[in-house]
What we know:
about 190 residues, elongated, mainly alpha, 6 helices, about 0% strand
Amino acid sequence: MKNLWMAATLTLxxxxxxxxxxxxxxxxxTANVDTELNTTAAADTTLNEDKREFMSKAHSISTQxxxxxxxxxxxxxxxxxxxxxxxxxxxxxxxxxxxxxMSRQYSTTLPQQMEEDHAGRVQELRDKNTDEFDQSxxxxxxxxxxxxxxxxxxxxxxxxxxxxxxxxLWARNTTKxxxxxxxxxxxxRQDYRN
Length: 194
């Protein structure tokens, strides 16, 4: 009988010990997950200086596309020019809103004006007469997309695929969109020339 009581006591003690040990492991695991999430969230609230500059550049690029698109929608003779221009206004207005949201998230200030080369490109198109506007728009928008794609590719090439902060995801996705828009514009320009 003593052996039975002794075995029962040892079994209950072992269960109690295992239970305590298991609770400790769960708490440690939860603490590790919480720490990882907090570290990730904290890391996604700051941008280094290069990314801040790139965010400003992206803002200027997007503003340029909105302005070029507005000109095309207003002054384009060809329906395709007007429709594509309006698509650019819609797409890049959304990009500007996203950049504005991210600037608040990252506590950074976006420029109020386009960079000089972007503003110059818009002014050149604005100065075109009606007869040459459509061809000039296609040439201008293709060049603008090429420059934007180059800028974005230069800046996203160093971002690791596992670096999924808000801005990095946005930059990678926008790079793909710019490439697609550039290909469309090149195709439309070729159609216009034919």
